[in-house]
Design brief:
Elements: H1 2-19, E1 23-26, H2 33-49, E2 53-56, E3 59-61, E4 70-72, H3 81-84, E5 89-91, H4 92-103, E6 110-113, H5 133-138, E7 146-149, H6 160-169, E8 177-180, H7 204-217, E9 222-228, H8 232-238, H9 251-254, H10 265-268, H11 272-285, E10 289-296, H12 302-308, E11 315-317, H13 324-331, E12 336-339, H14 344-356, E13 360-362, H15 368-375
Parallel strand pairs: 1-2, 1-8, 2-5, 6-7, 6-8, 9-10, 9-12, 10-11, 12-13
Antiparallel strand pairs: 3-4
């Protein structure tokens, strides 16, 4: 009994000390994993800039046959300790089980949004309207009693005057918890926050499974990792290239002001012939590669690739059954990587590899014809 009381007392002291700085909670309610990861890096930078403990939200997933989104605990995929080396964090589960009971009672739960959202209630954030918004907050039995519109404030963590405005307008002692309807971050990830990827380290489970796959299936040589984005939804998205020069994660290759080149249709949806040519060029550069690992949302092109390299001692493979997080972890360990400039899935791999100093490139970028012309 004495031991339990001591632990409870220590937890209470910790909670009260955190209250001095406050907490930041948000729903990662835009897109799938790649988009959520971009937003996470921005939210991490923002929480540090306003000196609030970041509550690590579960990852929102959409599974076939399920009407509502599924919330997967943050630490299922990533280790917490590396993040704590950058800034104070706590999982949503721990926050609700301990901290929220003391500093965020149900009658004081207020949702924050830039301006009102469409929904059942007028002049409201309607924080629980729609999927995944409703299922996300319901997972933790959270309801909101009112809304706060924080506009014209924004979440540029590198604007010191803006961050000062946040701390003055919403001081932690009066507002111990800022609960955002969506992520307080931009998409794609702000350039200044890209480096934060180095604190996002895969969980021991994901790392173990990815390394076992590599050891059991690709031993005795290096491997080339490639990401093919070619599902029906992606084909439609790429049709907007002419009107969207910075579509999705395109700034990772063309630059945030298109200063590194022009976004083209082939960069978004490369033709089979282009893919095969680029793979063969990569194989010439890296002589020790004996395997090609393919990750894709739709067509892995396994048979096409096997046919194209049938005269080489090369094995083409994918992970079965499909597991996007293991795909990401495996791609991050490849000897070389080729990905899709426009995809946030590729962007995650590219940031991780950059943090490790590993080489990567994008499909159809830079423009080889233009590059050769400039050389002449």
């Amino acid at each position: 009994m004495i031991i339990k009381f001591t632990i409870l007392a220590l937890n209470l002291v910790t909670i009260l000390s955190y209250k001095t700085y406050g907490y930041l909670v948000y729903c990662p309610c835009m897109g799938r994993f790649g988009n959520q990861a971009d937003h996470f890096l921005g939210a991490l930078a923002f929480s540090k800039a306003i000196n609030r403990t970041l509550v690590l939200p579960p990852w929102v997933e959409y599974r076939y046959g399920e009407v509502k989104s599924i919330q997967v605990p943050f630490d299922t995929y990533f280790n917490i300790e590396p993040l704590n080396r950058y800034h104070q964090v706590i999982t949503m589960e721990d926050f609700m089980d301990t901290v929220a009971l003391v500093i965020w009672p149900p009658q004081e739960r207020i949702s924050f949004c830039y301006t009102q959202r469409v929904g059942e209630i007028d002049n409201s954030c309607n924080a629980k309207s729609g999927n995944p918004f409703g299922p996300f907050w319901d997972t933790f039995n959270i309801d909101f009693v009112k809304s706060i519109f924080y506009g014209p404030l924004n979440y540029d963590a590198h604007n010191s005057k803006m961050m000062e405005s946040w701390t003055k307008t919403y001081p932690p002692k009066q507002w111990p918890v800022l609960a955002f309807t969506g992520a307080p971050a931009s998409f794609p990830v702000q350039f200044e926050n890209v480096h934060l990827q180095k604190y996002l380290i895969w969980s021991d489970d994901i790392l173990s499974k990815s390394r076992s796959f590599i050891k059991n299936n690709m031993s005795g040589g290096g491997f080339l990792g490639i990401h093919l984005r070619n599902g029906p939804d992606w084909v439609k998205a790429c049709q907007h290239i002419p009107d969207s020069p910075k579509l999705f994660s395109a700034p990772q290759c063309v630059g945030y002001k298109n200063e590194k080149g022009k976004l083209t249709s082939s960069m978004c949806l490369p033709q089979k012939s282009e893919i095969i040519k680029q793979i063969k060029r990569a194989l010439k550069k890296f002589k020790d590669i004996k395997y090609v690992f393919v990750a894709s949302d739709s067509n892995h092109m396994i048979e096409d690739l096997k046919t194209s390299v049938k005269n080489m001692e090369l094995t083409i493979l994918k992970h079965q059954p499909s597991n996007p997080h293991l795909d990401l972890a495996i791609l991050g360990q490849a000897n070389y990587f080729i990905g899709n400039c426009v995809s946030s899935f590729t962007a995650f791999v590219k940031r991780e590899r950059d943090a490790k100093g590993l080489p990567s490139e994008f499909w159809s970028f830079p423009d080889r014809k233009k590059f050769k012309h400039e050389e002449l």
